[in-house]
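Hi V.,

Quick status before I head out on leave. The structure for the redesign project is tokenized and pasted below; the design run finished overnight.
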């Protein structure tokens, strides 16, 4: 919930200074939904209830932003928007465990609130930059993270580990 407060209360107002129509969509569940609804009072913040499937919202977003510093499922939280072709702005800790993801090529990274706002402002008005980042990320997901790609890596590993078939000597 802290990330949502940070996005709604600090980062979004900085973005809206240059992009006044920018909006933030928050989806919350359980107790987080109540706290998120309170954020809907802020200018430019829309809150949905629990969404069974976030894909339509993520796919339709101009930018997916994740200022999280830690938490369970970080990798999955970034792979979904990357796979959907939505440009991502994330904190460096969100990329831990994802050595193939290159900052500036597959995603934009930011540590501080002003850096997040600047990265978002870079992507919103410039479809060429946003599409390049999104396309690079989607290509990476297809190459490295689909079931077929993961299965191929396992097959290669198993082939290296399996003993070579015994060859009978001709008698």
């Amino acid at each position: 919930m802290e990330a949502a407060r940070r996005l709604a209360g600090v980062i979004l107002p900085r973005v809206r200074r240059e992009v006044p129509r920018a909006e933030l969509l928050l989806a919350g569940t359980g107790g987080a939904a109540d706290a998120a609804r309170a954020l809907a009072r802020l200018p430019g913040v829309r809150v949905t209830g629990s969404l069974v499937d976030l894909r339509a919202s993520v796919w339709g977003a101009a930018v997916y932003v994740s200022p999280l510093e830690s938490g369970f499922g970080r990798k999955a939280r970034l792979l979904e928007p990357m796979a959907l072709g939505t440009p991502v702005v994330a904190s460096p800790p969100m990329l831990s465990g994802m050595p193939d993801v290159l900052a500036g090529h597959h995603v934009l990274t930011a540590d501080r609130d002003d850096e997040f706002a600047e990265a978002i402002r870079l992507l919103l008005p410039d479809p060429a930059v946003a599409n390049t980042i999104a396309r690079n990320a989607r290509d990476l997901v297809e190459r490295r993270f689909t079931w077929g790609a993961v299965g191929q890596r396992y097959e290669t590993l198993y082939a290296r580990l399996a003993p070579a078939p015994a060859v009978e000597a001709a008698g």
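Above is the designed sequence. The first strand starts at residue 24 and ends at 27.

G. will cover questions while I'm gone.

Best,
W.
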